[in-house]
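WARN retry 2 of 3 for item q-0093 after timeout on previous attempt; input resubmitted unchanged.
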Amino acid sequence: MRNHVVALDGLRGVAVAAVVAYHVRPDWVPGGFLGVDLFFVLSGYLITSLLLEEHERSGRIDLVGFAGRRVRRLVPAVLLVVLAVSVYIGANGDLGEIERARRHGLATIGYVANWLFIADGDSYFADVAGPSMLRHVWSLAIEEQFYLLWPLMAWGALRLAGRRAVVGVALAVGAVSVVLMAVLHDAVDPSRAYFGTDTRIFEPLVGAALAVALPLRSTKPQWLVRFGAAAGALWLLMLLLVDDQWTGFYLGGALAIAVVVGAVVIAATADGPVAKLLAWRPLVGLGVISYGVYLWHWPILLVARRDSWTGSVADGGIVVSSVAVAYASHRLVERPVRRSPRLVGWRPVGAAAAAMLLVAGLVVVSTRGTIPAEAVTVDEAIRAIVDNEPAAGDGEGADEVATTDPAAPRRPIVVALVGDSSAWTLGGGLVSWGLDHGPYESPFDPDEIVLLNLARKGYRLAPGATIDLDVPRPRPDVDLEDEAWWRDTIATVEPDLVVALFGLSDLQSREINGDVIEFGSPEFEELMSSAVTDLFGDLAETAPVIVLTTPPLIGEHMPQPVMAEFFRNESAQRATTLNAIFASTAAADDGIAVVDFAALLCPDRSSDGSDHGCLLGLDGSPARHDGVHFTANGGRLAASLLRAALLDHADAAKHDAP
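OK item q-0093 returned
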């Protein structure tokens, strides 16, 4: 039995090494994401084996004891990671990151993060807004949900009809899950099928069925051990041959992989070459702390990337740091909690609930520290502006609007910001400009400025699916709703100035009704010019419109190689083309002006775009943590660069007002 356990620890080490390699160097190990499938099958096998052994030994299953063991094993480490991420993002993130860290942190604590990602439309494979530091916890959520449901199902099956019923339930539910994965798979973005508990639960159930057919302590036939060795070699080969765009994964491929890794698990529990290889001490040691390595490596990787740590030395540092932090967590927190003699019966569950509530409170506090106290919601601000009444804010909705003097009874200068997620993060800097304005010459009181941040993630000017990054994201319904909301809100408020900024999506080619419209083609320029004229022309009928030129994007901070290459080789030239369209539109409409934000933010650009020459944030770190979206300090830097131009236009709007 001891060798079996040691070999399974080694198998965990292989799985986590594959996942870490995939995240750090996806070009080297494109199929490393299959390590998660191995974890799922192994978890189903071990959990079911333990449940069956307990039932054989005592005739019952202690569900409370099972829950206590799972809680002691899983909760302490994940709470540490959630708290660390929340504190870091609260201190260093932009407003979008801070809001996301709060929501993702709370969802992680509740082990429902995978369903939140699905509800939000987050993509596992392409998040150009910068991937969440807690994106990887989706798999932990699925495992915890499995741990909650499967013991009850297995217990009920054993009571009704014995072990055969357990196999029947596992196969029946697993078959439904396989069908759901195929049906719910979307070729544009398969994240729904990838994240869903209903679409992934067949993998641990494959392990569960194997645990009934080939118990952990049983002797395995030699032909099966040899088959497991061949299956292991095949799985290792797949790490190099498949990638995360493999459509077949969702159409039966994942089931085949689950069977393959199931064979490896069985071989690891029998005497033979697979078990001996997996018992290699360094691999076993990695497996023992694999849970912590999985939890810590992703946030460590993203911190390194946003600070421009790239290359082989940096990658090695990421791996070493992840292992070191995971080892410290294991020795100082996880192991003491698991071995505590006081945590028996219901006590682990109660202690975990209290700890989860405490950390949830700390997450909320740590991700609210940078939000202005005077902030009010958009609806409150609109009502106050239209009714010429003070807006009494209490801090809610700070990500949408802020005012420096909510008690002022007179109408302030109102600036409406529209655009995509780049504009939304820029809004954080503009809010700071209003709250902490600093010295500048202006004929009006700076405390009269109100910013309405109406920008939205994913919005784009031209319709259709964006396709150049191999991550098309057709969102026409959302776009139309947002555009209508912009127009209605701006018509209601009648702001003194509208500021617009657009970025990544509008630098890409389009696919509309199956037809591809290449960026830079006459058809694309006609499409974009029409969209720009329509939107900005309509807005200019209500208030002067300032269009900020799109700055070049910087790919050094993007973990996805395809995006980094696009940013490095394409974005600067494409931004120039898009900005020329803005200029021609402004030349034809007196109500539209262009401010060369690109030149302000990136004053040392070379003509071929090879040297972006963009400024750093006020703290010396990158102003845009992922090459697109502004950090808090980067937003304040951008606001300081734009201050004079926007104030000139705001002053003119105030003087021209009746």
